[in-house]
Predict the 3D structure of the following.
Amino acid sequence: MLRPWDMQFWLEEPSGKTLHSKLLNKLTTDIKEGRIAPGSLLPGTRSLAKQLGINRKTVQQVYEELEVQGWLVSRYRSGTFVSETLPEQGLSASDKRLVNSTQKTRPTSELVETLYQDAVSSFSEIQVTNDGTPDSRLIPYELLARTYRRVCVDLSRRSKLGYGDPRGTVELRSSVAKMLCGDRFMNCSAAEICIVRGSQMGIYLASRVLDPNKGAIIMEDLCYLPAKAAFESNGFKVLKCRLDHQGLDINHLRQLLAEHPVAALYVTPHHQYPTTVCLPMERRLALLELSKEFRFAVLEDDYDHEFHYETNPIPPLASLPNSENVVHIGSMSKVFAPGLRLGYIAADIQFIERVAQEVVLIDRQGNTLSEIVLATLMESGEVRRHIRKTRKQYELRRNFAAAEFLRVFGDKVTFTLPTGGMAIWVDISKLTKGKKLTGLPGKDSTLSTLYTDDDIVSTHLRFGFGALNTDEISRSVEQLSETLSDG
């Protein structure tokens, strides 16, 4: 059925609001005021995004939120309509302003808004992005269940489930310190460890402790955007350092240090996120020498150290000479599953105490039960055994994914087989030929534009193989081929 007229929209909200909130307010206002009548068919997300010159994902998220609130209804193969029965509107406009809590809060950035919408979408039918996540089907759930039960009974009997150390239980901090000393050549004690709820919390707390008045934070050109959002939310200006085929460009880093005051550098040296490149030893040593010369902190995100396939991994920055300024951040989420939310920060005692003071304000302490369970499994050798077992499976999946890309694409794509991790960085520039892509099918491939807020053409994609078995890898690569060939 043809529409008699195209519905036109515009965004006139004051500055300081995100595109998401502007569009949300505009649509609800138009519905309340009757410009868009109940039962009206709204433009498709692609059409409205083009009309407003914004990202289609923003429109999709607004439509989904209004549907949850009862303003819109989605009909399969028909489109999105204004609901025939609108939500209750008992308050006047002036009264609504009085009770509207958003009037009392600080505005957030569009990046934070997008990250939040991506996070809450995991509870809807939208597929969550897999750009290198572990396979939760490999969790030793029977072992975990038995250990949780045994630890819970023991802690209850000994009245040990009350308030505890904000740095984390001494049992887990000691186990992590042993792991870092034995497996990663680091010399640290339990007093130099703080347990956190995953590496993202560690990144946020580290930037919370650092002083934005001392300078900017440097990040890699393509980077982990949740970390960037954390830095900006704590008042830091973020500078970008170039990447090349060996990772962080040390010459460009020297240039940035000469031109700007810098408080810290955030880096992913083990497997650069998202390109998977391992930073070579000579660059690591040069980086650490610069950190002492210019007196900036180095936030080392060692998010998947456990998964290396070819040779023994290069020791982390925190284990090398001149590493006094390194704050080492790690996670056990990749070992089991992200939902377990256990990570750690390793740094000097003064830094750890400042981090723990922040923990007291926002969380008081971590999850005692989960921490003792993990410490028990680490001390018994079960964690090491699980890592060895899953590492073999992930290596087989990496090799299979690489073979499938060669089988399906031939010489139309290129990549360097990563030495570890759960993703492959694939050059698709021969297929895109400078064209802008708006998205990819499914959840297993993400375009390089996802890792920067700059307006660039996608030349690479990151394919996550960790959470997929061989059949799923084949289907995903073939589906990807169909989309890229059509483009």
The first strand starts at residue 72 and ends at 75. The longest helix spans residues 382-409.
